[in-house]
Design brief:
Elements lengths: L2 E7 L4 H18 L8 E7 L20 E8 L4 H17 L8 E8 L15
Parallel strand pairs: 1-2, 3-4
Antiparallel strand pairs: 1-3
Helix pairs in contact: 1-2
Length: 126
């Protein structure tokens, strides 16, 4: 069960935000085989003064339209699966809603199965 947090600069349309969430979900379904309808995700829109894209850090020229994607998920995926996920997210976001690949910044936070409670105060995977 991944939980996805997406942060972007305020002002994008509802259609744009929905497309970002959908494309990230579809990329996870395709590359790391998350369950169907496992759609735990949020989008946070940030005011320009609360947003820093680190310019050209690591030799990548990011624009003001950078999309930060943080995915918390169960540990155990291979490096190859993670690389496939990064590439698929960038590819999908480029196609819809039109995010430049340079503007897709992704981080994964891996946790143990017992680190989740999906409601009712119960550790469903423990």
């Amino acid at each position: 069960m991944p939980f996805t947090r997406i942060s972007l600069k305020k002002g994008k349309s509802l259609k744009y935000r929905r497309a970002v969430m959908e494309q990230v979900y579809l990329a996870m379904r395709e590359t790391i085989e998350i369950p169907e309808n496992d759609r735990f995700a949020t989008i946070t829109e940030l005011e320009p003064d609360n947003f820093n894209n680190s310019g050209d850090y690591a030799g990548i020229d990011r624009s003001e339209d950078v999309v930060f994607i943080e995915i918390t998920l169960n540990d155990g995926r291979t490096t190859e699966k993670k690389k496939a996920l990064y590439a698929e997210i960038a590819k999908r976001l480029t196609a819809d809603p039109g995010v430049r690949p340079e503007d897709v910044v992704i981080s994964l936070l891996e946790v143990s199965k017992e680190d989740w409670s999906l409601g009712n105060g119960v550790a469903q995977y423990a």
